[in-house]
Amino acid sequence: MPAVPELGVGDAVSLMPGPVAVRDGFTLIEVVVAVLLVGIALLGMGAAVPTLIRTAGDSEISFLTLNAVEDRLQLILLDPRYAQLDSLYDDVVEDVPYLPGFERTTSIERTVTATENGRILDVTRITVTVDSEIHPLVVSRTVARAAP
Known about the structure:
Elements: H1 28-77, H2 85-89, E1 91-96, E2 99-114, E3 120-132, E4 139-146
Antiparallel strand pairs: 1-2, 2-3, 3-4
C-alpha cells in the first residue's frame, strides 16, 4: 500500500491521479470578471458626477442669492434716514453683483395710521426679491421697520 503523504495547510489536493499542478496568478476568467466589476463601479460613479456638480452649483447660487437679499435688507435697516427710505431704496436693479442675469427688486411701503388713543403708528414694510429668468430660484424676504 502506498504511503499517504502528510498535507500541510494550503497544500493542493487532487482527486485525479498524477502530480498536482500548482498555479500562480489569475485565470483569464477571473481577470475579465474583475475588470467588468471595476468598469461597472466606475460607470456608476461617472453617472453621479454631473448630479453632484449641478447640486453644488445650485447651492452656490442659492447662497449668493440669499446673501444679496440679506445685504440689501441690512443696508436699508441700518439707514438712519427713515422718512426717505422709499425714495432712496425703492428700485429694480438688473445684474446683481456676483449674480449676472439676476434681478433684485426692492419694494418699500410706508403705512401711517392713527390709533384710538391718539398714537400714530408709522411702519414701513420692506420686501427684497432676487430672481432670474435663467434660473428657477426666487428668494424673497420681507421685514417691517417702525419709525424711531
